[in-house]
From TrEMBL:
The chain crosses the membrane at residues 69-94, 106-128. It comes from marine metagenome. This is Uncharacterized protein. Keywords: Membrane, Transmembrane, Transmembrane helix.
Amino acid sequence: VIKELVEKLINILNIDPNKGEWLRSAMAKSSFPEPFAEALYKQIVDNKLDAYLDELDWLSKHLVSRGALVFLTLLLIPVVGLSLFSIYTGIYYYANLDWSNADVVFYMFFVLNLTIVIGVPTMLAHTLNKLYKQRKEFLERQKFIIKKFNEWLTSLPDHVIDEINQERLEEDKTAHFPQ
């Protein structure tokens, strides 16, 4: 039984094969108490399951909501429309302007106007793009974590899942692992 638990621990911890061989030989030489080995195995399994759940919790808390993306997209449409309107009217205005009387203040306002008209929609579009990519990344990561969690959970013996469930229920933890 100890040998089987050592193999499971090596798989859980993703230990290098050379170090795993050293661990196997060290465990074979020692008189490792079986209840301690089982308790250690359950504790490591419990910690790994908690790590998966913690990462899922963090991802769900930091996920950009679909509503925010829709709002920013709907906000981008009129901002781009206003910018195009400002550019169109600005071109007409500046084309008919007498540039020989323009001073430094006029050029400063001209540059500021161009920066606002072009910069605001560009920055909003850039922000929207970044948030969309972040949401996509988080959803892919969430899907991966759920897949790994389910693979990990199905690889465990039923009695270990039952014992962890029982301990969690006794400690009043809300996470309950389905079988």
